[in-house]
From TrEMBL:
Pfam families: AP_endonuc_2. This is Xylose isomerase-like TIM barrel domain-containing protein. Residues 4-102 form the Xylose isomerase-like TIM barrel domain. It comes from marine metagenome. The lineage of its organism: unclassified sequences, metagenomes, ecological metagenomes.
Length: 108
């Protein structure tokens, strides 16, 4: 499910307060990735924050805007855990500490 509308349709169809979303920010491939993420935040029970996104039509992934993602999570009332997930092609031993620092800065 790569679009908020489809994912929310499934969640709402359960009619259960016990069903939520494992919000993986790298799984949205729409024209408005950040908008779709924002629509899903109120239903998020966990967040897997990917360091890259790939909007519809993009030939390759691009760096996620962590500051924007953290703001979306805050504005949506999310108060749970955030797992930083790294799947980029670069060396994780070098890149992950940098991304972790960016996330810490964004969180404040």
């Amino acid at each position: 499910v790569a679009e908020a509308a489809s994912l929310l349709k499934i969640v709402r169809a359960t009619r259960s307060e016990w069903v939520g979303i494992n919000l993986d920010t790298g799984n949205f491939h729409t024209d408005d990735v950040y908008g779709d993420i924002a629509r899903c935040v109120p239903h998020a029970v966990n967040v897997q924050l990917k360091v890259e996104i790939q909007p519809r039509g993009a030939k390759q992934k691009s760096a996620a805007d962590l500051g924007r993602l953290v703001k979306i999570l805050r504005d949506g009332g999310y108060q749970g855990f955030i797992a930083l997930e790294f799947e980029a092609a670069t060396d994780p031993w070098v890149a992950v500490p940098k991304w972790l620092n960016k996330l810490k800065e964004a969180i404040g």
